[in-house]
Amino acid sequence: MNPFKKLYCRAFQTGMRIALPFMPYKDPAPIGGLDGVPAVLRRHGISRVLLVTDRTVRGLSLTAPLEQALAEAGVACTVYDGTVPNPTTDNVAEALALYRANDCQGLIGFGGGSSIDCAKAAGALVARPDRTLGQMEGLLKVSRKIPLLIAIPTTAGTGSENTLAAIITDGPTHRKYPINDFPLMPPYVVLEPSLTATQPPLLTATTGMDAMTHAVEAFIGRSTNARTRSDSIEAVKLILAYLHRAVADDSDMEARKKMQRAAYLAGSAFTRSYVGYVHAVAHTLGGRYGTPHGLANSVLLPIVLEQYGAHAHRRLAMLSRAVGVSQAQSDREAAEAFIGRIRSMNDSFGIPRTLDCIADGDIPQLAAIADHEGNPLYPVPVLWGVEELAHIYHLAQEEQEYDRAGNSEYSVSPA
Fold it and tell me: Which one, of 378, 40, 385, lies nearest residue 221 by Cα?
């Protein structure tokens, strides 16, 4: 990256860090279970609502108790269940059409981060009919209140229930991009651990490591404050203590409750302190190849942390000591111990160390898109341009003996 661009990036990030205490962040109010949702809607004068979910979640009858509670309360509920992983502009357009056709007044995002993000994006278009989603890409482009949104996560990973971000994939180009603005923060959330119990073990693992990525990137960035560091530390402690239990036993409600708490805290941390190049690269893989976001983050996290090298050692060492991974006096040793713990966790869950989907010919374009997303917004330990980001893709595609031995159930083929 040339010196002038570096100067611009760091100046932008410094301004954001200075402004952080004055920004209108607000934690969502908890609703004590699905049966509490109708009362919240009535309190806001809402009698017609759009429930945004996906076919898997609805097919498992997870939304049925809520749909029944709404019907009994006299709240008309229109359901959009076409959301796909890495939700597309087409998904948002379909949801928006249902919202308008049924004169809905509020939104419920019920599912993983994809469904919640789809609901957020539909709300943004309700608030800003004068703009396309692409025109709202980036920071503070919505700028108007969206309809009431209630987030009901069924995974413990994305933290979308507590963030100002919606991540959307452009249908025609397969480019994945963030929309970041305060009106997208859900004012209400339902955290019900039993809703996560239907996840396959590998999905539990990768969504848990997604939350780990959020916490780590928020902690090691240059825009932290006392709250975000505290939230990150608590989130990492919970993940280290409970993710293996949640993966091993889908009926362990204590572990699932703790993992929901971890995802929520990690979301709180990164929506205030932002993420880093792990996410910039992961988003391009989700857009181009449909790579599940948790999987991409799981694979990329140790790779990117290793490449940050000494630039991240001090903060990684602080985190490593705070969560009990290493008490080494050397920052390098403590940081490397933490990266080693991340890699050993991935290995224990059967998460691959590399991805088989990345085509050489795509890397220049993917790296340019990652550069556009990450710079200047993400306050990373060290700034990278297109060349350095391209190197990350090459590292992520290099087949290793671990993967050749058949240690993963994941395989994502190029589109």
Answer: 378
189 CB-near residues (< 8 Å, 6+ apart): 28, 29, 30, 31, 150, 151, 152, 153, 161, 162, 264
Q: What pLDDT does 119 receive? A: 98
Q: Tens of pLDDT along 29-81?
A: 999 999 999 999 999 999 999 999 999 999 999 999 999 999 999 999 999 99
What's the sign of the alpha-carbon dihedral 61, 410, 263, 251? Answer: positive
pTM above 0.90, yes or no: yes
At a CB cut-off of 8 Å and minimum separation 6, what does 106 contact?
41, 44, 46, 48, 49, 50, 147, 148, 149, 150
Residue 319: CA atoms inside 13 Å, Cβ hemisphere, count? 34
β-pairing verdict for 176-180 and 165-169: antiparallel
Four-residue CA torsion sign, 68, 154, 108, 230: positive
Q: Report the 3 state secondary structure along the chain.
A: CCHHHHHHHHHHHHHHHHHHHHCCCCCCEECCCHHHHHHHHHHCCCCEEEEECEHHHHHCCCCHHHHHHHHHCCCEEEEECECCCCCEHHHHHHHHHHHHHCCCCEEEEEECHHHHHHHHHHHHHHHCCCCCCHHHCEECCCCCCCCEEEEEECCCCCCHHHCCEEEEECCCCCCEEEEECHHHCCCEECCCHHHHCCCCHHHHHHHHHHHHHHHHHHHHCCCCCHHHHHHHHHHHHHHHHHHHHHHHCCCCHHHHHHHHHHHHHHHHHHHHHCCCHHHHHHHHHHHHHCCCHHHHHHHHHHHHHHHHCHHHHHHHHHHHHHCCCCCCCCHHHHHHHHHHHHHHHHHHHCCCCCCCCCCHHHHHHHHHHHHHHHCCCCCCCCCCCHHHHHHHHHHHHCCCHHHHCCCCCCCCCCC
For residue 171, the tally of other CB atoms under 10 A from its CB is: 13
